[in-house]
Structures are given as C-alpha cells and as structure tokens.
Amino acid sequence: MTDKNLVCKDCDSQFVFTEGEQEFFKEKGFESEPERCPACRKSRKEKRSKRGSKEKNRNKLR
Ligand SMILES: [Zn+2]
C-alpha cells in the first residue's frame, strides 16, 4: 500500500490518507476512503459529542 492524496469534501483541501490509516480502516472494516481531512473530521466529532448530551435527537438526525 502507498499513501494516497485525497481531497476533503468539506473544505476542499488535500490531505494524505497514509498507509497506516489505510491499514486502520481495513481493520475496522471500512471499505470506503475518508471523505474529510483530519481537521474536518475532528470538528465534526466535536460537534457530535456536544450534541451527544441530547441523545433523543440522534434518531431525528439520521
Ligand atoms: Zn477538510
């Protein structure tokens, strides 16, 4: 495997999907590549964890 250059869906910046990350994705059973750069992934995670206190709303979001 080699490092891959991907373009973030959210901010259109390029980021590297490293060999190590690809391994990690495979291990987790993810078949698709990440669509967002680490920064956007992180900010999404933070948003989600803030919402996490309102568990009831989760079903509405999906
Ligand atoms: Zn991004």
Can you give a write-up of this model?
With 62 residues, the protein is an alpha+beta fold. It has one domain (4-53). The protein is 45% helix and 13% strand. The chain has helices spanning 19-28, 38-51, 58-61, and strands at 4-7, 14-17. Strands 1-2 form a two-stranded antiparallel sheet. A hairpin with a 6-residue loop joins strand 1 and strand 2 (14-17). The radius of gyration is 14 Å and the shape is globular. The mean pLDDT is 87. Zinc ion (ZN) is lined by residues 8, 10-11, 13, 36-37, 39-40.
Bound molecule types:
zinc ion
Global shape = globular
Structural class by helix and strand composition: alpha+beta
Number of DSSP-assigned strands: 2
Low-confidence stretches: none
Q: Which whole number gives the mean pLDDT?
A: 87
Strand order of the largest sheet: 1-2
Query: Per DSSP, what share of the residues sits in E-state strands of 2 or more residues?
Result: 5-15%
Domain module tally: 1
Between the first and last Cα atoms, what is the distance in angstroms?
34 Å
- The DSSP helix count reads 3
Characterize the biggest β-sheet: 2 strands, antiparallel
Order of helices and strands: EEHHH
Protein name: Cytochrome C551
InterPro entries: Zn-bnd_dom_prob
